[in-house]
Design goal:
Nucleotidyltransferase, domain 5, 5-stranded mixed β-sheet, two-stranded parallel sheet, 7 strands, alpha/beta
Amino acid sequence: MKQHFANLIEEEETAIDMTPMLDVVFIMLIFFIVTASFVKEAGVDVNRPEAATAVQKDRANILVAITDNGEIWINKRQIDVRAVQANIERLYAENPQGSVVIQADKKATTEVLIKVMDAARAAGVYDVSIATAEQ
């Protein structure tokens, strides 16, 4: 009988408590979800012009699309040119490390492109790029 109790005590002592490890994994999961930057889409496909000197842009979180007929799209919504600055300010406040990438159709007018670039700079974002297709 004494031997039986000794075996039970040894089994209890050798058990590993997994609760602290699960707590650490759960906290790490929450940390990665909170710090992750999610890619937002402009909401419309455009036919971008090609460029030989195009480079890959990291951390492009604010995408603005300009269609061939001058429509401006941000976050899958069509935006009036007067509301571009306010929308960029809001998105930039959500992620201050992000930059603005303008996806202008190759048939879009330069006037609309310049208005969007001016609105981005007026919103306080000076890292503005224009998306192109690779050659």
